[in-house]
């Protein structure tokens, strides 16, 4: 089953580097995306914000990103928590643009 997301955007908010109870580095952020996408033979403006989270080495590196930093991220979607239906993008790779 596929669950792969690629998105470009900019950092709107960041929690700064934190650590899980197990000592794993983590960073949470809100990303803004804007693009034009084709749908049903027409182009449509897409504007959205998404919650994202990263762990480990990726979190260490992303935690140094400033508000407004443009980046391309890839990862997968999962629930924000076991009791929530809200989705969060788990970043497994990124590139500054």
Short description:
This protein is mainly β and 97 residues long.
Alpha plus pi helix count: 1
- What is the H/E order? EEEEHEE
Overall radius of gyration: 14 Å
Low-confidence residue ranges: none
CATH H level, superfamily name = Nucleic acid-binding proteins
How many individual β-strands?
6
CATH topology: OB fold (Dihydrolipoamide Acetyltransferase, E2P)
Q: Characterize the largest beta sheet: strand count, sense, and whether it forms a barrel.
A: 5 strands, mixed, barrel
Quickly give the CATH architecture: Beta Barrel
Helix content: under 10%
Quickly list its features.
97 residues; mainly beta; OB fold (Dihydrolipoamide Acetyltransferase, E2P); five-stranded mixed beta barrel; 1 helix; 6 strands; 7% helix; globular
Explain this structure.
- The chain has 97 residues and is mainly beta.
- The protein has one domain (5-96): OB fold (Dihydrolipoamide Acetyltransferase, E2P) (Beta Barrel), CATH 2.40.50.140.
- Helices cover 7% and strands 63% of the residues.
- The protein has one helix and six strands; from the N terminus they run ββββαββ.
- It has one helix spanning 56-62; strands at residues 5-14, 18-19, 25-39, 42-55, 70-79, 87-96.
- A five-stranded mixed β-barrel has the order 1-3-4-6-5.
- The longest helix has 7 residues, at 56-62.
- The chain is globular and about 50 Å long.
């Amino acid at each position: 089953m596929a669950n792969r997301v690629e998105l470009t955007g900019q950092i709107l908010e960041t929690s700064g580097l934190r650590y899980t109870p197990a000592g794993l580095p983590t960073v949470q952020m809100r990303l803004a995306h804007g693009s034009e996408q084709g749908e049903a033979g027409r182009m449509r403006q897409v504007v959205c914000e998404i919650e994202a989270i990263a762990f480990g080495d990726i979190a260490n590196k992303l935690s140094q990103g400033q508000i407004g930093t443009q980046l391309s991220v890839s990862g997968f979607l999962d629930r924000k928590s076991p009791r929530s239906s809200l989705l969060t993008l788990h970043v497994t790779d990124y590139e500054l643009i």
